[in-house]
Amino acid sequence: MFENLPLWPARASTMAGNVDLLYIFLVLLSLFTCVAIFITIVVFVTKYRRRLDGREAQQIEGSVLLEIAWTVVPLGIFMLIFAWGAIIYFQERVLPRDVAEIYVVGKQWMWKLQHVEGQREINQLHVPANRDIKLIMTSQDVIHSFFVPEFRIKQDVVPGRYTTLWFRATQPGTYHLFCSQYCGTQHSGMVGQIVVMEPAQYQAWLTTGGAFGSLAANGASLFAQLGCPTCHQSEMQGRGPILSEVYGNPVRLEDGQTVVADDNYIRESIVNPSAKIVSGFKPIMPVFQGLLNEEQLNELVAYVKSLNPPPAGSVNSPGIAAAETKPQQP
Amino acid sequence: MSDSPLLVEHPEHDNPALLHHFATPEQQRNTASLGMWLFLATEVMFFGGMFCAYLVYRYWYYNEFAAGSRSLDIWLGTINTVVLICSSLTVALGVKAAQLGKRKQLVGLLLATLVFGVAFLGIKGIEWYQKYEEHHIPGHSFDVSDIIQNYPQIHIDPSHSQIYFSLYFAMTGLHALHMIVGIGIFAFLTYYSWKGKYGPEYYTPIENGGLYWHFVDIIWIYLFPLLYLIDRKPLR
Amino acid sequence: MSAHVISTKLYVTIWIALMCLTVITAGVAFIDLGPFNTIVALSIATFKAVLVVLIFMHVKYTSERLTKTVVISAIFFLFLLLGLSMADYTTRLLG
Amino acid sequence: MATAAVTTERENYLNAEYGIKSWLLTTDHKRIALLYLISITFFFFVGGFFALLIRLELLTPAGDLVLADTYNKLFTMHGQVMVFFFLIPSIPATLGNFLVPMMVGAKDLAFPRINLLSWYLYIAGGLLMLLCILTGGVDTGWTFYTPFSTGFSNTNVTEAGLAIFINGFSSILTGLNFVVTIHRMRAPGMTWSRMPLFLWSTYATSIIFLLGTPVIAITLLLVVMERAFGLGIFDPTRGGDPVLFQHLFWFYSHPAVYIMILPAMGVVSEIIPCFSRKRVFGYKAVAMSSIAIAVFGFLVWAHHMFVAGISLYAALVFSILSYLVALPSAVKVFNWTATMYKGSISFSTPMLYALGFIGLFTIGGLTGLFLACLGIDVHVHDTYFVIAHFHYIMVGGALMGYLGGLHFWWPKITGRMYPEAWGRLSAMIVFIGFNLTFFPQFILGYLGMPRRYWQYPPEFQVLNVFSTAGASILAVGYLLPMVYLLWSLRYGKLAGDNPWGASGLEWTTQSPPTTFNFDETPEVTWEAYDYEHIPLPMEVTLER
Lengths: 330, 236, 95, 544
Ligand code: HEA
Ligand code: HEA
Ligand code: CUA
Ligand SMILES: [Cu+2]
What we know:
The complex is a heterotetramer. Chain B is an all-alpha fold.
């Protein structure tokens, strides 16, 4: 019976081992603490059990030394736990340099996933093993949460902005995808699968999937369709800034601040252009909020990003890179 | 301050205002006053939640907040501040009159306070009505195209403007609700003062009512710059 | 702990001060001081509030340390709420 | 109820006056405590009823017992009823109301009529909550997260929000009454350093009542207004930030978890010395740690939001602060343990509950450290690991403390003893049932089972079956005291004034006490827990 009762889920990402190590440390530490306290209590209550021999309790005031000791020692241990946990959290939050991007849209009650190459999936995500994947996530309605227990990762998906998550799967296989933030009636039905494939297989899968055109290409036609080029032209003659060198670079704003144009910045510039005005321009760009659905928005963002591709050597598509990366032994 | 407030026992229970579970009028007065101060502390946190929301969105949507604050009537706002400060003075003098046992003066001052309080609400009502006419009340008919036209220099997002006005109405509304409660309390106090219930030995209700009134005044002292004065400087 | 009776003169002086400060704060708002507009407006408001608390609400004259403690803790916890919330909002763009 | 067969007894607060009016209009803190006791027990069983339905649904992986919407309402109302209408008022409003004036040596609370008003506010909020439940319920989760609660749920969110809003003012007024009473009504000689630790923890709890509750009140009011007028403050489609709601909600609701645990800690700090016949080890440290918990408790709220999209740096700050608030709890656990050293320990029912409290609270608290640890929380957030964590503290800790306290002061409250053997038996049943219910949930959580799931993958079933089995044992453990405590009202043996030989002013009065508690204001000349000088009654000596 007990072989069917594991204590932790499969370790299928580079993060899983780190988290489990800390977890096991904490379990052992807690076990030790509990046992120590419980044994002390059991010893006291049996040894000093009330007897009929009329032995009285011995009054003891307390001890400053002990108080200091059992404040400072746990404090030290706590700081160790904090630091260890913070290091892992940093690894989880700070993106590695060379990542492949996938767009995620949560809605009541399904996951919609858009690959840069154009494949779209619902409640299923195919990814290559041994490749850093970055998820750029948003929600169409309420807050959801993208949770893959086997990867030990989780991030809330918040409407109105992008949140990101990254992972590197190590083991081909099929894993749970849960929505872990309560989101209404079918919250428990908002589940899916993460299919981790060998890179070659993944390459093959990419070609079989129904091709809708790549995300950026769709974005390009949308860009034209919506009339963006009337202001954003490739030369400096439009009323809006040239978009070809925006992504990833610092942008000077009208109010003197400088921000780095990341995904959220591009998204915000389209949905709500007035939030940050580029220095030297007038706030004339129309508001596109409500006119675009999240998928279209993702396509536009992908297009704007594709205008300024990352420096040579790093590639942005899981497909290309996966074909080149040798499968590592996990 | 001695450590125990009950050190002296006063067996004689002839003071009608002294409740049975207190030993001395002194103790009873201090108890009521502490209770009032603690209540005001909870009120600070009650408004605090809104101040927190205000701070966040003012940080995010400064332009809309600035434009929104310009659209308020600074004259009415200033006059209302003046009115409230006057009412605080009459309250403070009222407490003094009660301490000294000057009944007529007390009633007069309380009445003056009531007049100021009602005046404040009246002016506030005029302001709200203006906002209603300008379609600045959040909801279906919300429309800030006039504000947008007035300030071509800054870009204004209507839905962010709506957040400003939502906070404006929520904060001034909650404040006005406190004023209404205050006016109710003061109507009571005026009636009983006129009946001669309060004097040098017993004026705790006047004192505590006064504390409440001053507190509501202080909230306004902050609401005024936060809502009206965000950005009044000449446009460039 | 008999109650302290404050002179009418002091009350009126404070009242005049509050009136002047109100006019000043409204006037200063029309002068362009850059970010100092906000700072000045809030400083004046705080100054006014302190006057009201100390004189009108008698905190200056009470022999109770407790009243002062209550006032200070209310302000302290308000700032905890504002400060720690803003700690999130002001650093979101950094990571 | 208890007024029936007591005509031959001494005059006391129960038989001083008769009739329903003498109860509903009473300003006697002891009678109000009883009013609370009855109403709170009612809400506990309502919440427990929902819990049983939740556990039954989760017996099988498929969602077969109730509909998905119904399940969502079940856990929402379970959480809201248990937290706001049972656990938060539980110890403060019953035992606190009964004991605070007696422990300080006063005739009543500082504001008796406001105390009655608190109860009416509680009832008003409670009735509104019941109305909300009976007319269809709420399905937002007890946390009311926006924008789901403001824009998407079409259940009775407004009613539930207002019910909790009203109930909040009941809490605020209770807290205010306690703080003022402790400052102003102490009997001569009752210095701060002589106060029983229960008073210290009640005082700390009241600080949170006063400074935290208003924030949840205004936040829920904003949610209600957002639903009614579309303010847009929490609505992302209009530029609002849903995460701001979470900040405001947890600013109260984290400190609120200490509202739930601090009073229980106070109860345990009374029981352990009494049944060890020793003064508390490190009185000062235990007293100060209560205050520290209350204050530090306000610094850690965003540890519920580590994956909600807050900034990395804010997460770091809130994580490290969460460890600071754990320290005073550790200090308490160690001091309670040390108190038993060289004591004279008896295993009466209250002591069993207190020992159970220490054990289960320690486990719950230690798993809190897992959650405060950023790297682990990302994985276990919103899984059954969290559910197990807080049930260990709230059910294993707070509820056990409450039951322990109820047994401990039962003779004082009613004048009669409960049947000891039954008491010990049900304490054991609760302990066993509890662990069977909630321990498997730690494993479930780490395995990745998300919370608020109506149906779940079949591999999680085995552990869920254990959990449901445990819950039924637990139900027996809670129904038993219900039965024998009621039984003891009539048939219990008469308790003396001080059946435990306990210290504290409340034990110097008669049982049940008279309306004004003390015939003349006592003068305190001894330290708290002066067990050296308190004789042990003969029966207790023999009973062990
Ligand atoms: C009474 C209620 C109560 C109490 C007292 C606590 C106490 C603590 N809680 Fe808990 N908590 C809840 C009720 C409570 N909690 C609830 C209801 C939720 C979920 C809400 C929801 O989402 O619905 C929650 C959720 C929750 C989270 C969020 C989890 C998530 O959603 O991802 C976190 C994260 O930090 C946390 C941490 C802590 C910590 C650090 C303590 C500390 O105070 C614990 C301190 C105690 C100890 C540490 C034990 C004793 C110490 C020793 C014996 C020392 C020796 C130890 C060593 C040397 C290692 N809690
Ligand atoms: C004080 C707080 C408190 C208490 C005491 C309890 C008590 C219990 N809780 Fe609760 N619980 C919460 C607070 C509490 N809970 C909160 C805040 C949540 C989160 C909600 C949310 O996600 O929004 C939660 C969620 C929660 C879940 C998770 C649901 C989900 O996420 O899907 C589960 C599942 O097992 C559970 C189980 C139990 C059980 C078995 C008990 C048992 O201890 C209960 C035992 C009591 C009884 C069994 C009563 C016995 C009574 C009878 C037998 C008579 C009944 C009949 C009539 C009324 C006529 N609780
Ligand atoms: Cu989506 Cu839960
Ligand atoms: Cu918490």
